[in-house]
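=== Structural record ===
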Amino acid sequence: MNFNHKNEKDKLAREFSEKIEFLKNDYLIKKSSELKRIKDETELEFSNKLNLIEKNLNSKNQQLASAQSEISKEQNELSDKEREITSLKDQHKKDLEEFNSRKPNFSLNDDIQIISNRRIKMPKYENCRKNPRNAGFINLISQLTSANEKLQLEIKNLNISLEVSNSNRTNESLKDNDKYNENFDKFETKERECSELNDELMSREYRIDELENEINSLTEQMQDLQEALEKGIASKLPITEEKMDEPKKVGKYGSNGARKGRDVYKGTLGGYFLYNPGGTKYYITGDERRKIIFN
């Protein structure tokens, strides 16, 4: 029996080639499946983290909006209280001027009292000598005595009238003083409320600063997570895998800020970003995507 080495060799070569092709196809299928699994797991992990961050971000934005609304409301209340304090100050000044203008003045009464205490000493009629030559003098003394008594009576009546008038004025002044004290108490109360409201406003403003810092921190975490995701996927790919597609330029950023006009790229995972001057990526998420001007 003749053994054909050439035919046997060709047969072995063909079988070996078929086996190699089979193994190659099997490897490609398994590799494709493994890549898809890695990509799906990574995207799911990233999606879960991104959803959590966006949820926290939305919550912080709501807290910020609520705090700003409260501050606006309290600022309006503060303005109302300041206007009320100004009104009370004006009323206080007016009441003080009125109080000073109506303050009782006892100078006239004192002067009349001094006059009333000065008794005009006239010689009595009985002490005058019974001399016809003294008749005119005695008559003059009698007239002066009568006039003095009449003047003393008028002074007494005037004193009584002044005492009644001064008493009324004193009562009115006391009433004005009570009104003044009442207004002053209101003024102090409003001023204290105003000070407390100012303290509350300062506390709210500090809280807003804290919320803004937290929002900025969450935004930076989202950007870092996006970069880590791309690096993580690249590190998990087999060495024999071909290089993934480069980011594709899709348009310009239309914001009015410092990033206006920069090129916008679409990443290999579908996200949009632009490059900062330092070479780092700034990912465009949420409502910011509306500012992209696509080619």
Notes: Helices lie at 5-101, 107-117, 135-236. Residues 245-295 form one domain. The longest strand covers residues 248-253.
